[in-house]
Amino acid sequence: MSRSILLILLTAIAATATGADLTVTVVDAEDQAPIAGAELLLEREDGSERRPLATDENGRVDLAGVAAGRYLLETTARGFEPDYREFVLTENEPLVITVALTSNAFVIDELVVTSTGIDENLELQTGYVTLDAAALEAIPGVVESDPIRALQSLPGVSAASDISSGLYIRGGSPDQNLMLLDGVTVYNPTHAFGLFSTFNNDAIGGLSLFKGAYPAEYGGRLGAVLDVENRQPDPPRVRAELGVSIIAARALVEGPAGPDRWFVAGRRTYLDPMLRALRTPENPIPDYYFYDVNALYASPRLGGMTTFSIYHGRDEVGVDADVNTQFDLGWGNTVMALRHERPLGDTLDGTLSLSSSRYDSGTDAEILATAFEVDNQLHDVTLSGRLDWYPGRGHGLSLGLGGSAYDFSYSQSFNNDSSVDYDSSPSELFVFVEDRWRIDPRTALRLGLRGRYIDDGDRYLLEPRLSVTRGLSRELTFKLGAGVYNQYLQLVTTEGFSAGDFYLPIDETAELGRSFQTVVGLEWRPNWIDLASFEIYANHLDDLVVFDNTMPVNQTSFTAEDIFMTGGTGYARGAEMMLRRDFGRFTGWFGYTLGYTRRTFEDLNRGNEFAPKYDRRHDINILVSTQAGAWRLGAAFRYATGQAFTPATARLLLRDPGTGEASEFGQVLPADRNSARLLPYHRLDVSARRPIRLFGRPAEFVAEIFNLYNRRNEWFVQYETDGPVTEATVVYMLPLIPSVGVNIEF
Q: What is the pTM of this model?
């Protein structure tokens, strides 16, 4: 099957790869000056190809291998009359078109402008990456495009397995990452036991990733920050998109409401009917589905911009093993945010935000007619305000303050008798101040300080942050980043089953985890489309905690001292290189990371240093995207050092002293913690997209192949002790998975 799919794709590519080169130059009709950023829409007359384009700094667009045929070209630019024209492209005959736009003067009564401004993090921040919706869509996924999985194609970012959306960023564990949706914390952003994230690619406008040494406006985690942004709809009329893949259906509707704008996006898997059809009494296949909904409403009224957004997602699993044994599991997130931004003067802007984030999971089971229930909830309500002042002389000052109220609860009952009933409602206040100072044309400084007060233990924290940028030449830039960070909320993870994960506060029985991060880097930009970067990072950690899996099953105390092994130390050090091209016939990046991560706990590994499973010595990432005729092709390759694991060294047998016979087969005795490695990990994913017409409407055909050459990467080793000989079994990750889908626009 995989060979047939690959052959079809290669044949289609070969059939459309020939064509002609097309160059379009857009200039001002008055003085012939090139117009950068002009928007072009190139559409084939038969509707088989439709490309949105933008001119570069020279007012040019260069396309290679465009299929022959008759085309319509629409050219628009702010302040100019639009231009519409038709032309015919002949096979193997290059065509050059010059579009001269006439200026369009107009009069308006009043204009209110709101903007997020230039992304200063691109200049000031080390380890900072942004990806827009188009870039995320071009990265091959598992059945469907996924923003979190797309990040695993970046240097310094990896995952536990193919069946995980948790991110290991520069030697940090997933719980050390702050995950945000429009600035609001999402506590367990996973669907399908970690196979997918909660972020629907259709509803996402882009994302920003701080790999470390992040600025003072963020806090609460020891490692990295990921801020996912909702799309910002601005359609001239109501429009809709529908998408269908092999596991899910998606829909997006957006439009205007007077001066306001809105969108609603949703998706749902439809595996449950197929699973029901396959279910038999002898093979009780679980019933499973997930769904999520994103919505946003934005209004430029009240002198500024008011935005309300909501996300709600849910996973449901049902298992009927027999008449007296069944399981029902459910988990999900609900995130809401209300924000108002407005100018308060010529040099002063203000923002006020109110948000709510809730995660809950529940298990309702019956085991041999005995009831068993588990309920876990975390609710976070945050109110914050921010002022941005631009007094001149190269300074940009920010002041923010706010507070969060948390509610943690965890209950467990067996046979209708409550065995665990934990509840805690701590709160936190925070304030940050930051100065972004352009010292001279080549030097910029960001100096920040974040203060926190946590009423649980009456704790005060100060966290300084620093970023420095210095231009060494026109193309070469030096960067430095540093900061102090503390973590109050700690994830208790079940590793293989993300729905059972839950957060607990580090109360006064233990010290808060603390990290000191430093990053030094160089960036080389030989032109406006290419980037080469090199960074060295070091993260020192104190007072780490790890879940104590020797805790008794009937544990009733949930203090940090009882739940965790505390007082750990560690470090993550490494070097990271990236070569990136954002525009042109071929786009993508090459990344390489050399990393070392170690942890030390008094009660683990006899107090000796060990490598956690997220330690990766070598990591190579290659992403390529190109246009071949009407096809948009993508490929992502990754190579990584094998994951660390703990091997077995011996086996303990207990014998009856009277008969000399073994009373049980015994238990495996482990070697030093994570002292062995699985085989190296490597995988190639490919994708192909092509505009089509479906039911007379513009549409897109999408084909993806995950793990193209069917590499069975190792996941973990399992030891069987049911017999006299110990059997070591390697459990493997996902095989080759082909998928197809269609997106249609109305």
A: 0.81
